[in-house]
Amino acid sequence: MATQVVDVDERALKELEEELTELANAQFESDAYKHMLSVPFSLKGCQEFFKQHALFNLNRRDCWGYVQAKAPMPAKQFVWDHETEELDGVPSRGGLNHYELAVKQGEAWGLTPEDYYNTEPLDGTFTCCQAWISLAQNEPWRVAFASSSALEYSNSDDIIRGGGISRRIGQKLERELGIPMRKQVSNEEHTVAEIEHAQMLMRAARQFGQTPEDRAQLLDGAKKTWQIDRIFRGFLGDLMENYAD
User: Which residues, 6 or more positions from 167, have their beta carbon under 8 angstroms from its beta carbon?
Assistant: First the structure.
């Protein structure tokens, strides 16, 4: 993708990156994240968790589509490059796209593809997914872009001290259910892919965050999406608790 030459305020970008990084790490110190990560996985709790989480995966595809529709042409290319892998598939995983990886991963805890395809969103999943769609559809495009990109940012092992959520959930499954990471094909893939995907937010900030107002919109999108994310993670923790042994 050809990169537009822009004047860059390096100090302002550094300050934005530092604030985003601290906010991303703060997710893991929130009550919602601590609750979700503290509830032990039962087999049934694991199954219900990942069926709802797969719907979150599908919601990401919807939201990025709305972001792309409203973004200017240079930003559309950012989204296109990102979604090509998500939708076309991962060569290292036999060409499975990221939703298909999530479904394939379910074999490790006894789920079939039909279990995923027949799953309806529970109240928490439905509400949070609608909130994310609202951000993507109704906010200024920089806010919308950051609201989707920031969820990749806060799952990067390069950014999150102690590892992103894919790594932490993967380790939790290993400890509590004895499922090795090599059988968690989606979690394993995301521990690698999110390192690259997370860089998109600051690449976009460099190209599309020239003014204080532009950067404020990117920060606003990240803050808003992480608010929704805390609600979703708290809901998943409650869901797991319902099935605790």
Answer: 157, 187, 191
